[in-house]
């Protein structure tokens, strides 16, 4: 038996206000006056039997009930939009991927063409940034984040484990004999204050001296580019630089790999897991990185 539905016009307004946390921005998006938006929210709250928003002096916030309702409403509208586009036989929408710069540069950019070939009706937009996307307020469908896999309200799937080792260009490796881990310390160390360095040398049984902060690049992708150019030794995740190693553009002088608690994960709002474009991308990328879907 179907439960009675709330007024759909009011639900549409609620979704926009919850996403923007602003009556004004929601009104601009929908094409209503702010008074009309306020009226629709009041109608919905009366039907619901309680407040969905907290009205503060200069902002609004979702109540606990509003936070429970908003993800489901957003997912419902997304699924209706996807189904409508599919029924028309046209493009199934744009998939916006927010990915860390390193993963976007060293893995996703190399493989995303395969996804587009497999799903030609989905347009792909990539946003490469180390800033975490706010799924409730931004036009991001999925994200690829570096972390420990625990983000409230988000589903997280492990993509690449964080193993790491020193790597350098063949030309730099040939400049001095590199037989022992300590030999690396005679070469320029990129991002010398990265904690991965101390962890790797400790695992190798070598004391790592106080780092010299003169080659601070701040991002694995930047350190890798400098290493490829022969500017120094970088500490890199082997999984992301397998192609450079296979082609001989980078050298890993020691087999020792150290595991990090940090890894790359595919994330998206739990309530949107069944949106077709998200499901298609999830299945594709997990298959592509060799992860069992487990579903």
UniProtKB/TrEMBL annotation:
Q: Does the keyword DNA-binding apply?
A: yes
Q: Can the keyword Transcription be found in this entry's annotation?
A: yes
The record's keywords, sorted A to Z, are:
DNA-binding, Transcription, Transcription regulation
HTH lysR-type domain span: 6-63
One Pfam family of this chain: LysR_substrate
InterPro entries associated with the record: LysR-type_TF_proteobact-type, LysR_HTH_N, LysR_subst-bd, WH-like_DNA-bd_sf, WH_DNA-bd_sf
SUPFAM superfamilies cross-referenced by the UniProt entry: Periplasmic binding protein-like II, Winged helix' DNA-binding domain
By sequence similarity, the record places it as follows: Belongs to the LysR transcriptional regulatory family.
Protein name (database record): LysR family transcriptional regulator
């Amino acid at each position: 038996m179907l439960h009675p539905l709330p007024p759909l016009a009011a639900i549409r307004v609620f979704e926009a206000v919850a996403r923007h946390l602003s009556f004004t921005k929601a009104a601009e998006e929908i094409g209503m006056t702010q008074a009309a938006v306020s009226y629709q929210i009041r109608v919905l709250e009366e039907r619901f039997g309680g407040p969905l928003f907290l009205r503060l002096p200069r902002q609004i916030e979702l109540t606990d009930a509003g936070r429970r309702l908003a993800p489901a409403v957003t997912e419902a509208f997304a699924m209706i939009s996807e189904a409508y586009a599919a029924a028309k036989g046209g493009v199934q929408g744009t998939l916006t991927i927010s990915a860390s710069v390193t993963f976007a540069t060293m893995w996703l950019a190399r493989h995303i063409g395969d996804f587009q070939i497999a799903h030609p009706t989905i347009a792909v937009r990539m946003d490469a940034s180390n800033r975490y996307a706010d799924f409730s307020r931004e036009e991001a469908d999925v994200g690829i984040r570096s972390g420990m896999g625990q983000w409230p309200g988000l589903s997280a799937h492990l993509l690449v484990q964080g193993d790491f080792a020193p790597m350098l260009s063949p030309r730099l490796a040939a400049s001095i004999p590199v037989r022992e881990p300590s030999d690396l310390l005679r070469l320029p160390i990129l991002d010398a204050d990265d904690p991965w360095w101390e962890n790797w040398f400790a695992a190798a049984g070598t004391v790592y001296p106080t780092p010299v902060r003169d080659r601070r690049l701040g991002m694995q992708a930047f350190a890798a580019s400098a290493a490829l150019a022969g500017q120094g030794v970088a500490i890199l995740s082997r999984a992301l630089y397998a192609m450079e190693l296979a082609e001989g553009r980078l050298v890993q002088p020691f087999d020792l790999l150290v595991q990090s608690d940090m890894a790359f994960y595919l994330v998206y709002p739990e309530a949107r897991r069944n949106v077709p474009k998200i499901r298609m991308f999830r299945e594709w990328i997990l298959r592509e990185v060799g992860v069992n879907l487990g579903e």
